Amino acid sequence: MNLQKKILISFLIMILTPCIIIGSLGMIAIGIGLHGFRNGNNDTIGIITQPIHALTELTQIEYNELSSSVVRYPDRIENEKWLSEMNGRLESKFSYLVVVKNEEEIFVGNPDDYEKVRSAVLTGIASRGAAFDGAIYINGKQPVLVKHGNIFFNDASEGYFLIITEATVLYNRMNRSFVTGVIIAATLIAIMAMALIAWLNDSIFKPLENLRQATREIGAGNLNYRLKREENDEIGQLCNDFEEMRRHLKTQIDQREQYEQDVREMISNVSHDLKTPLTAIKGYAEGLLDGVADNKERQDKYLRTIVVKATDMTLLVDELSYYSKLDNNKLPYNFEKVNAVGYFGDCVEAYANELEMKDFTVKFISEIDPETMVSIDCEQIRRVMNNLIGNAVKYRNTEVHGQLDVKLTDSGDSVRISVSDNGIGISKEAQPHIFERFYRADKSRTSGRAGTGIGLAIVDKIIKEHKGRVFVKSELGKGTTISFTVKKGARNNNGS
173 and 311 in one domain? Predict the structure, then answer.
């Protein structure tokens, strides 16, 4: 349920609930309170809207019976037992009976109450006051409703009977019932309000407070503070978006910290890698200056060493500069349609003599159609081959004769190129990370193998730009195979 619907429902509950509860419970309470006043002709609404009529109807049966009896059974009207029974019935209806004969009261059902209203009743009868459905309503401190009937006794005497109903009983009952209903309704409304507040608190205020707390935590630098909300309303979506932002921000900061750590480690590696050739260059140069190389042969040897070390330094710097451009997408790609066997065969042949001089046996194996064409940037793929072959030489096993195999296999719409060696291998723990920039599996640096740790990262990035994939398979002490794929067919210069 969205926030707008929750607020609308809350307002409707706040507006309608009191009306419904007060009205319903008020009617129920009044109905219960007026139970003794209802008869076949009066319901609760009728009693409330026409209370005098209700009081009149309340004793109508007894009035009819008395009116009939004084005609048909006149002797009953002087029977004390029968009059007491009739008065008992009237008492249950908040009324009592008075019988007068020759101006003398021969029966009074409630002497105390009658004494308080006698004068008003007699005056009302004599003056024929306001009549309601045959009854006379007499107002005053103790308002009553009086029903009057004439009596002709057996001895020819005359008189009358009165049914007097206390009107205050009905009013008091109505007031008490209404107050009771209001109290019950107010209690239920308070409970409903508390439940509504709790619902709004759980649905709106508590999530907003959690969001505020999360904001403070993140502002304080705690990016591990998680904010989770299951409901899919606006606040839930906001919390989920905030949580997504937190994760994204944490990922970026973690990546930045990792990058900074990698850069620091790379600087340390490069410093070490540059320090070694610089020390050698400095030593050999000082040897030349000090005359240690006192013959032509030794001088040439010193100079060649200086050139080799300077070349190593140049390669390190070039690699860093190249990766910087590659990482910032500043290198253009010029895809060409070339013959796969011819191109990769030439790459291997270009390194063959140098590798044989370093005690390597080189094999080029093709298992694809000789006419297979691939779409590649020749310069970038050559750098890939240079890095892979260079790694094979750099991480060779010096205890055995070097072996390097370059193999082409068909892979559906791609050609797979595998470069295998019998070098020192890569541990299983390091294999998932070797294509990360600045990562070096050789942490000890005791082997004297120079490098920045970005060679394979360059390979991975170039191959991804070619819409290919890179794979590694290695075992410590047995060698490594790194494979990559390039697409068959032609491409235009933007690589699409």
Answer: no
